[in-house]
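Quick one, tokens below. Sequence please?
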């Protein structure tokens, strides 16, 4: 018979070294008043799991990606897997640089076969101006006009709505330089957040 009585979780001043003997143990750390669970190899902050939503997916770019052509290329690492017959609201935050003042950048996306996509990309060209590209298909949209300062971080933002059909697949962010032989760089920490609506 299982004991279903409430138990007070032990309070510790420091998390002990994780071990197989502690696997399954829950403690409360006095320093931050949060519960932690030992999986045998490490401690999991249970407060981070509260309210976690399985419908959310995040992709974060871990390294810069460069394209110095006018041909669209994948931002490798900036993609999210999408289920078949589903609807997604996706938010993109893309930090970028252009190598030369007066040159721009082009952002777009691919989607699974048969999917419907509408997107609005807002890409800055200075501290007070931006180019808005409303896209109704994959791999669409034009490059921005020239950026005001070379090799300086700027932030492009997009809101996307994707309705997949019978085929699952990925939403993949793509980009190109406005002019050939001039680097356009998507910077690490750029990210996507996808919310599966249905």
């Amino acid at each position: 018979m299982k004991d279903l009585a409430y138990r007070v979780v032990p309070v510790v001043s420091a998390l002990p070294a994780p071990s197989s003997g502690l696997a399954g143990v829950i403690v409360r750390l006095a320093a931050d008043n949060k519960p932690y669970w030992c999986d045998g190899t490490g401690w999991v902050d249970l407060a981070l799991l509260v309210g976690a939503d399985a419908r959310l997916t995040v992709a974060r770019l871990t390294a810069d990606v460069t394209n110095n052509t006018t041909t669209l290329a994948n931002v490798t690492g900036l993609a999210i897997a999408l289920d078949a017959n589903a609807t997604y609201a996706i938010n993109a935050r893309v930090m970028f640089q252009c190598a030369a003042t007066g040159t721009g950048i082009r952002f777009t996306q691919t989607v699974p076969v048969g999917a419907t996509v509408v997107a609005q990309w807002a890409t800055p060209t200075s501290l007070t101006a931006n180019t808005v590209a409303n896209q109704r298909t994959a791999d669409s949209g034009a490059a921005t006009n020239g950026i005001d300062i070379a090799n300086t971080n700027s932030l492009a933002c997009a809101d996307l709505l994707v309705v997949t059909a019978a085929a699952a697949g990925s939403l993949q962010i793509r980009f190109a330089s406005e002019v050939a032989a001039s680097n356009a760089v998507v910077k690490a920490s750029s990210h996507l957040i996808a919310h599966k609506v249905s």
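The mean pLDDT is 93. DSSP finds no helices and 15 strands in the chain.
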